[in-house]
Design the sequence.
């Protein structure tokens, strides 16, 4: 899916410069972030390229690539940046914006987040077996991780029944506003 | 560096936020930590009716959502008269820490946007029935920072409990290992958190373990990310990243890892068979929680610290 440049991506760039990381133009492309990133080999745009794309205002290219959705937020990029640019926070900001405008490119990840939060919205806490079963069902890979299930059950390393938070209505309200 | 001694006295009574993992797949971390705190005489009071912090899914879709979910737990702790919160799960810790940043009264927000988020969180908390006009002042501790602050007490207890320890054979089993400490990406975040250790070359875990006479070997992947929550959406990345950690451990002559993050432990222990299959390796590296090792060193039994929950068991290593 390619989306044309619109006002909203201008706004994202402005917000980054104003609120998230005003030092974005200090990047001198040393590539330390990219060589540190545990996932840069699978990123379509590497962290240093993402910074370049932000500088040139091409937020659409970032949102249309897989990088920001795969980012683990481990923050090693930010910690090692010699110019002290908070790359991980910036990436997460763009990811938040992509969610708001329903432009989450990687469907399996969007589904994981949505199903996870739906369960938390119902019970107030995550219920792992429910999440795994539901994801496998929706992803059409029912036997994914089934090799682990027997061991987990044998070791009783799982809660078999969900726990319910008493005031879960408070939780579901704020979650539903974001789904 | 953290100013020590006088500060630790206050920390003998903490609000305890287990989080969802520790109530389910990381039950061994939960139980071993609680018995360890009991032995050390630290009162831990579970936060009433706590909810999920929101963790990666909430954080990755909305900064405000994750901070609001987490802040509710802080407010309940506050209602219980507790301001120091111990949050053993690395992910929960990060989320609760950030929530405290937003709602603590003394914190000046950096800009209009942050101010907007802060006000919105406080409004939601008020709607939930919390008193947000009072002075809010929460301090959230990660398990590694907490135990690091308590290392003098760990050392004292270790000397005091020699008899209890010698009754168990597990301590000698652990002492016969060549372990390495694996920190993962835990110390990197949040960036503004008090730095009690070097984030790239951490030694806090080794320092704590030294107090119970357990020596750890250095290895080059101490702070590499395990792949974390991608295990539920992009599993291959996790099997690759966690595989590299096990390879580096084996290459360094390490036969076991000591960790303090439930997700790292799960990826490295529960998925070790999957990792071996994916990378065509034959590792058999037990991955213990720091709290299990400390518990054994302070005279607790293998049952008390739930060593039987490891998928790659300690026996026959």
Sequence:
């Amino acid at each position: 899916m390619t989306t044309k440049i619109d006002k909203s991506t201008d706004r994202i760039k402005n917000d980054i410069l104003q609120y998230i990381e005003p030092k974005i133009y200090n990047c001198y492309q040393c590539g330390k972030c990219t060589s540190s990133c545990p996932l840069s080999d699978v990123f379509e745009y590497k962290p240093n390229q993402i910074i370049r794309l932000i500088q040139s205002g091409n937020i659409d290219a970032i949102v249309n690539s897989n990088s920001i959705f795969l980012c683990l937020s481990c923050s090693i990029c930010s910690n090692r940046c010699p110019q002290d640019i908070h790359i991980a926070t910036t990436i997460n900001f763009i990811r938040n914006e992509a969610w708001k405008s329903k432009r989450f490119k990687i469907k399996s990840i969007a589904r994981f987040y949505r199903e996870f939060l739906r369960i938390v919205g119902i019970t107030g806490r995550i219920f792992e077996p429910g999440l795994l079963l539901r994801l496998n069902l929706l992803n059409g890979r029912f036997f994914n991780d089934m090799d682990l299930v027997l061991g987990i059950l044998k070791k009783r390393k799982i809660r078999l029944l969900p726990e319910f938070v008493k005031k879960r209505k408070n939780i579901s309200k704020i979650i539903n506003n974001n789904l | 560096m953290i100013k020590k001694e006088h500060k630790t006295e206050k920390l003998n009574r903490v609000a305890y936020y287990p989080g969802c993992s520790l109530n389910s797949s990381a039950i061994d971390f939960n139980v071993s930590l609680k018995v360890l705190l009991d032995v050390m005489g630290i009162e831990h009071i579970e936060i009433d009716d706590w909810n999920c912090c929101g963790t990666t899914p909430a954080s990755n879709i909305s900064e405000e959502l994750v901070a609001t979910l987490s802040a509710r737990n802080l407010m309940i702790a506050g209602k219980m008269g507790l301001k120091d919160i111990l949050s053993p799960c690395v992910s929960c810790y990060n989320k609760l820490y950030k929530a405290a940043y937003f709602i603590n009264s003394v914190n000046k927000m950096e800009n209009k946007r942050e101010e907007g988020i802060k006000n919105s969180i406080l409004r939601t908390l008020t709607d939930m029935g919390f008193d947000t006009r009072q002075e809010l002042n929460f301090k959230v501790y990660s398990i590694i920072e907490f135990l690091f602050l308590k290392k003098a007490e760990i050392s004292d207890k270790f000397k005091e409990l020699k008899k209890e320890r010698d009754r168990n054979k597990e301590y000698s089993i652990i002492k016969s290992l060549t372990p390495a400490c694996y920190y993962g990406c835990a110390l990197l975040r949040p960036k503004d958190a008090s730095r009690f250790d070097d984030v790239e070359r951490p030694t806090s875990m080794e320092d704590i373990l030294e107090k119970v006479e357990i020596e750890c070997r250095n290895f080059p992947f101490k702070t590499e990310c395990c792949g974390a929550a991608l295990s539920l959406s992009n599993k291959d990345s996790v099997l690759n990243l966690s595989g590299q950690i096990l390879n580096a451990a084996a290459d360094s002559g390490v036969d076991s890892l000591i960790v303090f993050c439930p997700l790292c432990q799960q990826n490295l222990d529960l998925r070790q068979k999957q990792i071996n299959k994916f990378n065509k390796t034959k590792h058999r590296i037990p991955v213990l929680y720091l709290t299990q090792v400390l518990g054994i060193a302070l005279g607790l039994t293998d049952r008390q610290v739930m060593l039987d929950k490891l998928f790659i068991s300690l026996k026959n290593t």
